[in-house]
Amino acid sequence: MTDAPLPERAAQTTAEHPWPVRLLSTKIAEYVARMSPVWVEGQIVQLNRRPGAGMAFLTLRDADVDMSLAVKIFARDLPEVAEGARVVVQAKPDFYLKNGSLSLHARQIRAVGLGELLARIEHLKGVLAAEGLFAPERKVPLPFLPACVGLVCGRESKAEHDVVVNARARWPGVRFEIREVAVQGVGTVAQVSEAIAELDANPDVEVIVVARGGGSVEDLLPFSNEQLVRAAAACRTPLVSAIGHETDTPLLDLVADYRASTPTAAAKRIVPDVAEERRGILVACQRLRATVAGRLHSEQTMLEGLRSRPVLAEPTTMVATREEDVARLVGSLRQATTTRLERSSAALESVRGHLRALSPLATLERGYAVLRTQDGAVVRDAADVAEGDLLDARVAQGRLDVEVRRTRPQP
Q1: What are 260-305's pLDDT values in tens digits?
Q2: SS3 annotation, the chain
């Protein structure tokens, strides 16, 4: 190493001109010292009181992921809190030069009460509802008979046993894709969200069940976490929430497509009961048989009624009756025709007699003759002709040519 001046900036350092540890630690400490105090929320997982030193040391862990920070505070400023409590801490980051550790020097610690946590959940509920994540039209109907069910549950939990045993008791052929995750404490949000996304991406999984089996309000807080709720809302596969807490409703219940009160109730909802379905089929078959038998009986009764009618029992009856009617009508027609002909014949003879009486031929037959001049004029008066005129005489049987010898007027 040479006595050359040290680089001013970190980017100017090289293998030949590095910074010593003390310089880097000092610069980190100076950077951290410029940071402003900050309010941070977490869960106390370790608490160590040292009355002799007048200090208390604790570990503040994120409630949703496995990350933590060391915190120190004067013992006089530490309120009555216990491990596992949710708190908000006002602290300033502090970098310890000797070992390069980063911690928070707390100025005050406030416990987060259950009422405040529930108020936050209620506020988040309003935000998500305004986005439409709880809308009924977003709900997807559950399949009637899923071949494969995705199950998100705790490791070797009773909820897993309740879902699997009850579902297979109802429908032995159902398969399960089980993802055992943390369902309480750190890691719950991340692991449950990841399991839902993984099962949603599996094309064989037709419905997903998230089961826990109850617990205190604090234990169920991860199931109202915004990240987990949005992961459930993004799931395209029908989702069943079976957290199993009747008093309070985690937000996962609201965004899920179906809420089951218990894991057992979820098992009864996702698959049908094979025995009940068989009974339903048997009842349906019996009703169908009864309906068909009743219809056949009704049709048979109607057919027998039709066959018992005289027209069908003795089909010739209709023909015989109509035959008599036809014969009677034909006889009446013949009689009416004969009567009409006789009357017409008598009337014709009467007219014929009148015609004969009025006909010129009848007059000629009595010895009269009709005289006509050469130009066809009928001679009615002796003065109409002169001596020597030739006339045409028409008699009853033929014609005669006559010559006028003399005319004699009527005396």
Answers
A1: 989 999 999 999 988 888 899 999 999 999 999 999 999 999 988 8
A2: CCCCCCCCCHHHCCCCCCCCHHHHHHHHHHHHHCCCCEEEEEEEEEEEEECCCCEEEEEEECCCCCCEEEEEEEHHHCCCCCCCCEEEEEEEEEEECCCCEEEEEEEEEEECCHHHHHHHHHHHHHHHHHCCCCCHHHCCCCCCCCCEEEEEECCCCHHHHHHHHHHHHHCCCCEEEEEECCCCCCCHHHHHHHHHHHHHHCCCCCEEEEECCCCCCCCCHHHHCHHHHHHHHCCCCCEEEECCCCCCCCHHHHHCCEECCCHHHHHHHHCCCHHHHHHHHHHHHHHHHHHHHHHHHHHHHHHHHHHCCHHHHCCHHHHHHHHHHHHHHHHHHHHHHHHHHHHHHHHHHHHHHHHHHHCHHHHHHCCCCEEECCCCCECCCHHHCCCCCEEEEEECCEEEEEECCCCCCCC
**Rounded distance, CA 129 to CA 353, Å?**
119
Contact by Cβ (8 Å): 221, 194: no
Average confidence (pLDDT) over 350-378: 80
**pTM score over 0.90:** no
Question: What's residue 2's pLDDT?
Answer: 52
Nearest to 210 by CA among 156, 267, 163, 151: 151
Round to whole Å and give the CA distance between 279 and 317.
56
Instruction: Give the span between the Cα atoms of 258 and 209, in whole angstroms.
Output: 9
Q: Which domains does the chain have, with CATH numbers?
A: 35-112 (2.40.50.140), 135-272 (3.40.50.261), 362-403 (no CATH)
Share of the chain above pLDDT 70, in %: 97
